[in-house]
Design brief:
Strand content: 5-15%
Strand order of the largest sheet: 2-3-5-6
CATH architecture: Up-down Bundle
Number of helices: 9
Family: Belongs to the outer membrane factor (OMF) (TC 1.B.17) family.
Pfam families: OEP (PF02321)
Keywords: Cell outer membrane, Membrane, Signal, Transmembrane, Transmembrane beta strand, Transport
Subcellular location: Cell outer membrane
Number of domains: 1
Protein name: TolC family protein
CATH class: Mainly Alpha
Largest sheet: 4 strands, antiparallel
Number of strands: 6
Length: 424
């Protein structure tokens, strides 16, 4: 009984030692909604884009500060003495304020330009969200496909093993020759390789999805979903409207508007600037409270006369920027329309191809079922039978590829439309 008791204790200890490892290797299952939520909360590109928006908002507040009063206060003092006289002190204080009254709308134009820059940075944030969603969706589909490929490869390998056992029996009985046996062995070797290849692809897809979720450490992941598109394909979309609602187009439009306000600000540099200033204080007093308070108020006017042509050159530069962005806006609009038309065509083609490949798979499955029975009865040759078997394998792979391509094409179409992480 002692050896049996010792063996039982060792087995229990080994079991508990394996539990943490088994827990660490547990596969986490995610659906598409969970992936969207996690990426939106943790992806570093989105955090970077959000900080860029905050920078532009802060810059707008900085520029807007030029329209508000400026107030400053100062105070100071000194104390001196000598061996022949008692120490004496002198103190001073002052408060000064100034307010812009007129500068030819230069500051207000700069504020408007900064406001448009804030809009541009927010549209840029949407662009980052679009790119992040596309990369995330692509990684999600790749993992979904990899999972299916592993299952399909194992299914094919099992069938190849069954075929090899059948051919081996027929070869031993003298019904089949060595060529048929070699072909069955090669088919099995290929199937085993494809199983290993599919598993490596699965591991890679898990890493890629983990990084697109914003995870520094990636473990075993599994996703759930169907190989069906959620986007409608019944009616052709309005490419003009979609292009003009794209975050990329709106970003460039906001940049152009900001440049337009910058041009107005550059032109305002030829106008005079008028400030109201006031202040009070005492420049020198020896005791508290001060013996007097001095004050002053006035209006300061500055008129630009000549600056070496820099102001004129600044206007010319600002005008060129506006013209450049206007041309870029037109070019981008045309490019977006081309991209939308191409993405839509690819999406429609992929959707139709799934139906075609499904029919091919149904036909290949039926032919293989009949051929199996005929080959077992000796009604068809090995060559005819193995061709039908290979066609079935190809049809299964083609159908999976068509389903996967449909989801990839849908992701590209959503990206072309400007779909963000909030677009589901």
């Amino acid at each position: 009984m002692r050896p049996l008791g010792s063996a039982l204790i060792i087995a229990v200890v080994q079991l508990f030692a394996c539990l943490p490892q088994a827990s660490a290797l547990a596969t986490e299952t995610l659906d598409w909604a969970q992936c969207l939520a996690e990426a939106a909360a943790h992806h570093p590109d989105l955090r970077s884009a959000a900080e860029s928006v905050r920078q532009s908002e802060a810059q707008r507040r900085i520029v807007k500060g030029g329209m508000l009063p400026s107030v400053s206060a100062s105070a100071g003092g000194e104390r001196s003495g000598s061996s022949a006289a008692a120490p004496a002190g002198a103190w001073s204080y002052g408060v000064n304020a100034s307010q812009l009254l007129f500068d030819g709308a230069k500051t207000s134009s700069e504020v408007n330009s900064a406001t448009e820059s804030v809009k541009a940075s927010k549209y840029n944030e949407s662009e980052v969200s679009v790119a992040t969603r596309y990369a995330l969706r692509t990684a999600f589909v790749e993992l979904l496909t990899a999972q299916k490929q592993v299952s399909l490869a194992q299914e094919i390998m099992t069938k190849r093993k069954q075929n090899l056992r059948l051919i081996a029996l027929l070869y031993k009985s003298g019904t089949e020759h060595i060529g048929s046996l070699s072909k069955a062995q090669a088919d099995l070797a290929e199937a085993e390789f494809e199983v290993a290849q599919a598993r490596r692809g699965l591991e890679l897809a898990q890493v890629v999805l983990g990084t697109q979720l914003g995870r520094a450490a990636t473990g075993a992941l599994r996703v759930t979903g169907r190989f069906t598109a959620s986007q409608q394909t019944r009616q052709s979309p309005d490419f003009d409207r979609i292009a003009k609602e794209s975050p990329t187009y709106l970003n460039l439009t906001a940049q152009k508007d900001a440049a337009g306000y910058s041009l107005q600000a550059a032109r305002s540099a030829f106008m005079p600037s008028v400030y109201l200033s006031t202040g009070f204080g005492n420049s020198a007093f020896r005791q508290l409270p001060p013996d007097r308070t001095d004050w002053q108020a006035g209006i300061d006017v500055s008129v630009p006369i000549y600056a070496g042509g820099s102001v004129k050159a600044g206007v010319a530069r600002a005008r060129a920027v506006v013209n450049q962005l206007s041309a870029d806006e037109e070019s981008l609009y045309l490019s977006l329309k081309r991209s939308l038309a191409q993405a839509w065509k690819s999406f429609i083609d992929a959707s139709g191809n799934v139906d075609v490949q499904k029919k091919f798979l149904a036909a290949a499955s039926e032919r293989a079922r009949i051929a199996d029975a005929q080959y077992s009865a000796g009604l068809v040759s090995f060559n005819e039978w193995t061709i039908i078997e290979d066609n079935l394998v190809s049809a299964k792979k083609s159908y999976l590829n068509a389903q996967s391509n449909l989801l990839f094409a849908e992701a590209a179409w959503v990206q072309a439309k400007g779909g963000t992480l909030e677009s589901r």
